[in-house]
């Protein structure tokens, strides 16, 4: 500064004007140096570092680059230059250093924010991240970083120790609790969700209260993001998963089989004893041939041992069309290629009602892929609905317009 003033004075400029011009020249010079340093840092040094990171065998440093940790560190260079030249302005040196300190705090906050995000990205590459996500904890740390950074900025502005500000936070604790209520609830919920392994990224959950039915794609401090099957996104508060009930389909996905639990409703007026002609016809069905022969011998032995008078149909034991049909369905499921044979499989009757006799199929497919599961389930019931009349059974259905027209046509004739 003195050299510039002396040079300007030698050029014939008055001392007062030389002081102002020297300040202007110095400010412009510092600005030019900062711009050049910033250009060299970002266009030369940063490119060299980026090339090295992109071409080494490590992958974790790529996330640091993508989160712009290094790019944000480049902002420190102009601040260091300004701090170095601050002694050229003795009257404003303290003010300049104060501004530089605030700037460095802001840059440090941004660097830590990016570094924490990169740490979460790196952790997400490991399989354990699905069962033990840390995004919520990272967000809590970020909150503390921003709070501490804000305290340091305010203390720099007022020129007081940050400990004085920290001592006054106790009085604001109630206000802080209200402001960060959701974050605190989310933190507690996140700890419980993680420690109890209640939900993971990738789980299929169903929560009708919030209209959620799909895959969990993100777990953060305050919310759990669910992508529904219609591709919409539902945001659920983290603490709602603790306070409310939800269904997690992970057990089904891990088992390798998905349950079929659906009923055929049989018209009870079509249920009756099998006639000899019906039994002979049923014996031609490959799945029933062995069953019918064993059943006939068993029934015959029982009736002979108990001297049953079979001239009356209700005496003794006899086969019914619904019983034979149930045996057919059991054997059909047993040989079906889409049914998981090592998991529960049964065909049972439920309590009859106004819609007929429910014949429930309870089994598991050997796939959890939704489209394949629905296709297998539809194929099974397509067949059973079509084959039921072969056993003299009618599937219950409320009268339709076609039924009414047929009835009216019969009455007219």
UniProtKB/TrEMBL annotation:
InterPro entries: LSM_dom_sf, MS_channel_C, MscS_beta-dom_sf, MscS_channel_2nd, YbdG. The keyword Lyase does not apply. Keywords: Cell inner membrane, Cell membrane, Membrane, Stress response, Transmembrane, Transmembrane helix. The keyword Cell membrane applies. The chain crosses the membrane at residues 20-40, 95-116, 137-157, 163-180. It is found in: Cell inner membrane. One of its GO terms (molecular function) is mechanosensitive monoatomic ion channel activity. One of its GO terms (cellular component) is plasma membrane. GO terms for biological process: cellular response to osmotic stress. Residues 332-391 form the Mechanosensitive ion channel MscS C-terminal domain. Residues 182-250 form the Mechanosensitive ion channel MscS domain. Its main location: membrane. It is a multi-pass membrane protein. PANTHER family: MINICONDUCTANCE MECHANOSENSITIVE CHANNEL YBDG. Belongs to the MscS (TC 1.A.23) family. This is Mechanosensing system component YbdG.
